[in-house]
Amino acid sequence: IQISDNWPGYSLDLFTYPQHYYGDLEYVLIPHGIIVDRTERLAKDIMQDIGDNDIVVLCVLKGGYKFCADLVEHIKNLSRNSERFISMKVDFVRLKSYHNDQSMQDMQIMGADDLSKLTGKSLSRFPLFSFPLFLLILFFMFCKDIVGTGRTMKVLLNNIEKYKPKMIKVASLLVKRTSRPDGYRPDYYGFEIPDLFVVGYALDYNEHFRDLNHICVINDHGKAKYRV
């Protein structure tokens, strides 16, 4: 689903959201209900591609945890209601690439010391992955859970691929549209959005707004209020 650059979004007055964020947001970009429906469709697409493979899901924290939990639950429900059982294992890695609303030059990968256990297994990037193994790496927005320039994804993939997994797929709820030609495109994604700094649905600004169910655009007041 593509959200155009001139999309005005939804008025905040149409939705409920935590009162402590009043005055900190411009508008709702993607309501929670639409996120849920789109994630369910992604789960169906992934199930069709899995075949008889089990899945190892590598969830990119922190922003990816809600997307990961919802996507995994949808896949489990589809598996329970089908003639084939899909075994899934979920693991986690954490990336840090932003200071306030600015992308940093150097990216930190935390929790990557155990990636050697993926050797010889198939990986699907979902952040978020049997024999043969389908490794799914799941991001909320690639990167930092958003696919932006793709630099973050490329660094993570280089670290994973040196362990020679059999198969890797990447899923991201959001893909940020940029003018750079080197942008990374995940195998599965929910929404392509304009080059905006968004928060909510576990995506944060300096650890704030994770408790916001909708995906919203933060305003200048909110950035200043929570700047570190």
UniProtKB/TrEMBL annotation:
The keyword Plastid does not apply. This is Phosphoribosyltransferase domain-containing protein 1. PANTHER family: HYPOXANTHINE-GUANINE PHOSPHORIBOSYLTRANSFERASE, PHOSPHORIBOSYLTRANSFERASE DOMAIN-CONTAINING PROTEIN 1. The keyword Transmembrane helix applies. The gene is Prtfdc1. SUPFAM superfamilies: PRTase-like (SSF53271). The lineage of its organism: Eukaryota, Metazoa, Chordata, Craniata, Vertebrata. Belongs to the purine/pyrimidine phosphoribosyltransferase family. The chain crosses the membrane at residues 126-143. Residues 34-121, 145-205 form the Phosphoribosyltransferase domain. One of its GO terms (cellular component) is cytosol. GO terms for molecular function: metal ion binding; nucleotide binding. It comes from Lophotis ruficrista. It holds the Pfam family Pribosyltran. Keywords: Magnesium, Membrane, Metal-binding, Nucleotide-binding, Transmembrane, Transmembrane helix.
